[in-house]
Amino acid sequence: MVTYVVLGNFTDQGIRNAKDSPKRAEAFKRTAETFGVTVKELFWTQGRYDVVTILDAPDEFSAMSLSLSLGALGNVRTESLRAFSAADMTKVVEKML
Questions:
Q1: pLDDT tens per residue across span 24-34
Q2: CA quadruple 25, 27, 31, 36: dihedral sign
Q3: How many CA atoms lie within 13 A of 95 on its CB side?
Q4: Cα angle value 63/46/62 (rounded, 5°)
Q5: CATH of the domain at 86
Q6: Who contacts 7 (Cβ-Cβ below 8 Å, separation ≥6)?
Q7: Where are the alpha helices (DSSP H) in 1-97?
Q8: Which residues have C-beta within 8 Å of that of residue 40, sequence separation ≥ 6?
Q9: What is the pTM assigned to this prediction?
C-alpha cells in the first residue's frame, strides 16, 4: 500500500456549499473504496488548508484516479504528498551512499 497525505482547499463552489461538506466526505469515502483506496483519516482544519486526509492506496494509479475524480466534482482542490512510514524510511536510508 502507498500512503498519502492529501491537503485540500475548498473552491468557490465548495465553500458556498460548506454545509454539505460532511455528506460529501462520506460520499468521498465510498468513492475511494471503488478505487481500492482506504480513507484512514479525514479532518477539517483551520489555517492554510480546509481539509487534511490520510489515504492508503494500492498503487499510484488508483490514488491519481481518485484525485482526478474528486477534482472533477469542483468542490475542492488538492495537493497530495507521498508519505513514508518509519519502516519505509529505514529501507530508503539503507540504500543511501
A1: 999 999 999 99
A2: positive
A3: 4
A4: 5
A5: 3.30.70.1060
A6: 49, 51, 52, 78, 79, 80, 81
A7: 12-16, 21-34, 60-72, 86-94
A8: 3, 54, 55, 56
A9: 0.91
